[in-house]
Amino acid sequence: MLVLDQIHTYYDRIHALKGVSLTVQQGEIVTLIGSNGAGKSTTLRTISGLLNPRMGSITLDGEPIDHLPAHEITRLGISHSPEGRKIFARLTVEENLELGAFARKDKPGIREDMNRVMDLFPRLRERLHQRGGTLSGGEQQMLAIGRALMSRPRILLLDEPSMGLAPLLVEQIFRIIENINEQGTTILLVEQNAHVALSIANRAYVMETGVIVLEGPAAEVLASPQVREAYLGG
Amino acid sequence: MTVTTYSSTPLPRRRKSAAHWVLRALGVLILVLVIWRVYTVGMAENYPASFWISQALNGLVLGGVYALVALGYTLVYGILLMINFAHGEVVMIGGFAGFFALQFFTAIGWLEGSAALVAFALLLIVGAGMLASVLTGVTLERVAYRPLRGAPRLVPLISAIGASLFLQYSVLLIFGVSPRVYQKPALIAGGFRVGDVFVPYTGVIIFATSLLLMLALYLIVQRSKLGKAMRAVAEDKGTAALMGIDVNQVIVFTFILGSALAGAAGVMLGFHNTIVKFNSGFILGLKAFTAAVLGGIGNIPGAMMGALLLGLIEAIGPSALGIPTEYKDIISFSVLVLILIFRPSGLLGEVLSEKKA
Fold it and tell me: How far is B213 from chain A (nearest CA, A)?
């Protein structure tokens, strides 16, 4: 459903993505792993329209979406929970969630999704009227994922949901990500924590310095000597 | 990129530099001098209480108008981190539009009609001012600021100063140098007395309208969907776009809100000062900017509070310091300089986060 074909993205003169191609099928969890600076976040930012590719094409269900502005891509059903959570610190938890549904007009549906998000993350219900900036790191991550779900996306792009979280919390968040996927949302997951990511993904891509060096079913990637050596400590 | 340290030893406290203490001593010295001056002048002149009260009322009326203009500065700063130095001209153009609307309604006789008709006409006059200002503000954004988005911060600032001069001298070219005189409808020309204090009707109307508009703005920003989007865009444009928010549309909306308030201020100031001319927005704009800085630029309640405070300072200041009223501008701009030196983040301003610094 989402296809990247030979994408080249630049930051001014820095060539960050050098011909990235990947596909995400309906209903899958696909993970993109790799070390710092490999271009994982750049790939997500290019898909969601925060960056424009200089070459290559991105299609959603066959329709080209590269060069659309970010807010229109969100409206097409691609929701991006960005690196570093980026919640609105001065807005309340409730306002953050409402903004997640900004492009939607169906009030009852929004209510329903608000409840669904709070069922997934009961902590958010307790903190509904608190400012986003007062939440702990884990709660902020929950809010960022919940906010991204509020647009009722078909594809959810998650950028490092495990960053800076305690192992127990990481496990909890990943269970919820699986749960979201089972409810019908396709997921493209960027992670440095390769082990956890590969444990829930169907397929995986491994990136190094702007190119994809390995791809395949998650179990095979997990077993490959290359990955074992580079990311999983031998 | 944020850096997290896990060291358990607290960072050493940064030592305050000598310059910091010199500055602080200077601040205390200025404060003492001002208080001493106010005290000696107060002893020598011995004004009655009613004098002070009517000065303070004047100050509040002026402060209310400043607040409407200051909000325009602060809203735009909050979103674009730029000072819209052409905002004073947006006010002036509102004042001109209001003047022509006033002429029109005088000509068709509505202003000598019943109270309801006069009130309705006044409403339409303010509306005309708001409309003209909104058109000006939105055009400014489109022509002078949007093409420069992403440029270094000094660039749109220079563009704003250019736009300010362009608007002033265009109006000069079209309407000439002579001021246009606002004639108050007979119905609101007078006033009433409370004890020894004379309260003009226009003062009451202006202050009430200002408060009402501020309340409306507050509700829009806090409660409405676009208001929430505005606050999101102010925090982080990229993430706001990921929410499906059209950032450009929100910026235009911000200019509409700020300019509408400016237009209302322009008309009310026309009634208050009785005249409007091509450069009447210039000093006013600087004053409102001072008010916004005083309250903490980017902070909405700060702009309201700073403006009311500045209005009071300006109204009471000359008499309290024993200097002629013509020099009241010196007091306002001294306040600006002092605030910038001693508390650049303003009275209600938060310490600038690393993102905005």
Answer: 23
Domain boundaries, chain B: 19-342
Whose tokens are 């539009």? That residue is B97
> What DSSP assignment string belongs to A106-161?
-HHHHHHHHHHHHHH-HHHHHTTTSBGGGS-HHHHHHHHHHHHHTT--SEEEEE-T
B235/A147 CB distance under 8 A: no
- The shortest CB-CB distance from B232 to any of A49, A74, A88 is to A88
**In Å, what is the CA distance from A153 to each residue of A193, B74, B225?**
24, 35, 20
Show residues of chain A in contact with B236, CB under 8 Å.
86, 88
How many C-alpha atoms does B281 have within 13 Å on its Cβ side?
A: 33
Q: Reply yes or no on whether the pLDDT at B88 is more than 80.
A: yes
Nearest to A151 among B232, B240, B244 (CB): B244
Q: What is the pLDDT of residues B115-138, one digit of tens each?
A: 889 899 999 999 999 999 999 999
Q: What phi, psi does B82 have (nearest 5°)? A: -130, 150
Q: Residues B80-94: what's their mean pLDDT?
A: 94
Tokens of B238: 């990229």
Taking only the tens place, the pLDDT of each residue in A169-212 is 899 999 999 999 999 999 999 998 888 999 999 999 999 999 99
Percentage with pLDDT > 90 across chain B = 55
CB-based contact B2 A75, cutoff 8 Å = no
Can you give the pLDDT at residue B97? 96
Name the residue among A50, A75, A100 with its Cβ closest to that of B238: A50
* CA–CA dist A52, A11 (Å, integer): 10
Q: If one looks up domain B19-342 in CATH, what number appears?
A: 1.10.3470
Is A88 in CB contact (< 8 Å) with chain B?
Answer: yes
What Rg do the C-alpha atoms of chain B give, in angstroms?
Answer: 22
Measured between CB atoms, does A49 come within 8 Å of chain B? yes
> Is this prediction's ipTM beyond 0.90?
yes
The answer to whether B288 touches B335, Cβ cutoff 8 Å, is no
Among the ranges given (A82-91, A225-234, B43-52, B346-355), the one the predictor scored with the smallest mean pLDDT: B346-355
Residue pair A88/B231 in contact (Cβ under 8 Å)? The answer is yes
Closest residue by Cα to residue A41 from A69, A83, A6, A13:
A83
pLDDT in tens, B133-161: 999 999 999 999 999 988 898 999 999 99
CA dist B334 and B339 (Å) reads 8
